[in-house]
Amino acid sequence: MATFKKRGYKPKTKEEEELQQEQDSATAEVFSSLDEGASRTEAWVASNQKYILGIIGVIAVGLLGYLAYVQFIENPKETNAANEMYYPQQYFDQALNSPTQKDSLYNLALNGGEGKYGFLDIIDEYSGTRAANLANYAAGMSYLNLQKYQEAISHLEKFSSDDAILGAMAKGGIGDAFTQLGQPEDALGFYDKAVAHSDNEYTTPKFLYKAGVTALDTKQYDKALSYFERIKEDYTSSEQARNIDAFIGMAEGGE
User: What is d(CA 94, CA 22) in angstroms, rounded to the nearest whole number?
Assistant: First the structure.
């Protein structure tokens, strides 16, 4: 059991005196080592002060440079890009609802007009911005509607989004392009990605149905059945569920 000695305690025996001397010596060595370590640290700092200050200066300049870039370059760039999106987006929206002038409207959306940028200009001039990312989606969908499928795939693959609808639509759009190019296996892979991207009442049954039809066409009847049955079980109120029993019958009949 440890014992504590009161202040002013004097050893009574020779053994206690020797033990006390050993303890005092050990304590002195510890403090001496600490003093030596502190002195070496101080000496190193003193001899490398310019180097240390230089590192701190580089970090400070880098931080200030980044803040200035965000404030005076990145933020205005994002704002300008978003403003430029207004013109081509109008033509894109009109094309979606136009029964007769779709091609000309999609081309205006892509290439611009009247001195205004189109989606392709925004992609080139404002690379890295959120607007340019969205422009890739819109350009891809425009090319898809213009039956330019390779261009559609190229732009839709560059689009990235966690949005439940847009992210799934982009992947499904790539699937549609591959379908039109006669590459059903690639199409099926992207329909699967569209389904996996998010679970919602709009895109999920839509691409489950397209995946099922593609699987039927490629005689993958087990896969087709699983897609159609999921629509029947999980999306009973969707448009795709209306005649789903007929497709389930075709998948079962192909087995």
Answer: 94
